[in-house]
Design a protein that fits this description.
The chain has 423 residues and is of the alpha+beta class. The protein contains nine helices and 13 strands. It has two domains: 159 residues; 149 residues, 2-Layer Sandwich (Heat Shock Protein 90). A hairpin with a 5-residue loop joins strand 12 and strand 13. The radius of gyration is 46 Å and the shape is rod-shaped.
């Protein structure tokens, strides 16, 4: 799927860039051609429309055009009513083929281009207006058409060079666009690939975690069905196992639902001023029976002044209970757990420290991953889903806080959480 998307995105990116190059190249060539030809056409039209016969100081009659434009070499063809060209004004051999072509275009009034051999010409035709008596004397029949033309081979050559340059540039741009499109598509798909891999891992882990309690439920249910005549008291062990696994699955689903809503920003915490020190004291008091049962010592240290933050009290209690629960699980009997709440500048620092089995260095970056269970969890037969620390980090992030874990095998674990205080 990702590979198909990569190819599709590369094709789309390259196509868009290639089309843009064609549009820009075409626009550049069209603009250059228009500007060059429009200047030539303007001079041709002006000259043919403003030709007049004038007398020089020596009495000689000449044809003149009063133009302020830069002079350009132009030539004229005069056609009589019998379509006969008055050649006495022009070179004979080079323009025989040209004249035969222009003869057929006497009625083409607009500027046009024609190609004769390797040369290109631009011409304009006009019906004779009777303003050139000098030319009329050269023919026994009335004049019919006047044509003015100029050679544009140089302009056509450079336009052709420009077109080739643009085409080569588009070709190179197409190759670069394919390479760049592929690179950009790969870069754009990196977060998608990570999300896809994460989703695949999530589905695999969720399936694995749900398989165990479902197997237990199915097995215990089959045991119950073997003895339909037994009383509930007689089958209390299978029923207790079913309830335990059902509770485990329920907790797992609740955790997954919370994280899923958090990822989609549907789960929003309700923040209000909360005393963190008060929550810590209450949790420590409630945990005393459990600590006694587990034969653990809880050392509480809370600074005297109030530690007020903007937060959700229920989520904060859930956060601290997750951390304490982990500390209790991985601390041997007669161990100690330290719970601290201190003010440091404009923040509140909450520390949960134990002297339990600890976490290896290579596992530390993975502890916040969903469904991750370290070697210590497996060795101790822990049946947690591996979602606790993922939920804890989400709660910390929702409170604009930070969390840091330091640990070592056999050296215990220390979790430090920092929250911004209310100004």
């Amino acid at each position: 799927m990702i590979k198909r998307t990569l190819v599709r995105m590369t094709i789309w990116n390259s196509t868009v860039v290639f089309c843009l190059l064609i549009i820009l190249g075409g626009a550049l060539y069209g603009l250059a051609r228009y500007r060059i030809y429009s200047d030539i056409d303007r001079q041709l039209v002006f000259n043919i429309d403003h030709m007049q016969q004038i007398s020089l100081s020596n009495g000689e009659q000449v044809i003149n055009v009063d133009s302020k434009e830069p002079e350009r070499f132009m030539m004229l063809f005069y056609w009589d009513s019998n379509d006969k060209l008055l050649r006495s004004f022009y070179y004979k051999v080079p323009f025989i083929e040209l004249s035969s072509m222009l003869l057929e275009k006497q009625n083409h009034m607009g500027p046009e281009s024609i190609r004769v051999g390797k040369k290109t010409y631009r011409f304009v035709s006009r019906p004779y207006q009777g303003n050139l008596p000098l030319v009329e004397k050269l023919s026994n029949t009335p004049l019919k058409t006047v044509q003015i033309y100029t050679e544009i081979s140089t302009e056509a050559y450079y336009l052709n060079r420009l077109l080739w340059s643009i085409s080569i540039g588009i070709g190179i741009g197409a190759i670069i666009s394919i390479i760049a499109g592929y690179a950009l598509a790969r870069r754009a798909l990196i977060p998608i690939q990570k999300a896809w891999d994460k989703q695949q891992q999530f589905v695999a882990d969720a399936s694995h975690e749900l398989r165990s309690p479902l197997s237990v439920v199915r097995g215990q249910t089959q045991i119950l069905l073997r003895h339909p005549d037994h009383t509930i008291e007689e089958e209390s062990a299978p029923i207790s196992a079913i309830l335990k696994e059902t509770k485990r699955m329920s907790n797992m689903v609740d955790g997954l639902l919370l994280l899923a809503r958090g990822d989609s920003h549907e789960e929003v915490i309700s923040c209000k001023p909360v005393r963190v020190d008060g929550i810590i004291k209450e949790i420590a008091k409630n945990m005393e029976p459990i600590m006694d049962y587990k034969q653990l010592r809880l050392q509480l240290h809370v600074e005297g002044s109030e530690s007020l933050i903007n937060g959700d009290e229920d989520r904060l209690i859930q956060l601290f209970m997750i951390l304490l629960d982990n500390a209790i699980k991985f601390t041997q009997a007669d161990g100690q757990i330290d719970l601290e709440c201190l003010r440091q500048g404009k923040s509140v620092l909450v520390t949960v420290k134990d002297n339990g089995v600890g976490i290896s260095e290579h596992e530390l970056p993975l502890v916040f991953n969903r469904f991750y269970k370290g070697d210590s969890s497996r060795n101790r037969g822990d049946h947690g889903a591996g979602l606790g620390l993922s939920i804890a980090r989400w709660i910390v992030d929702q409170h604009q806080g930070s969390v840091h874990i330091s640990s070592g095998v056999g050296c215990g674990t220390t979790v430090k959480i920092r929250f911004p205080m209310i100004s």
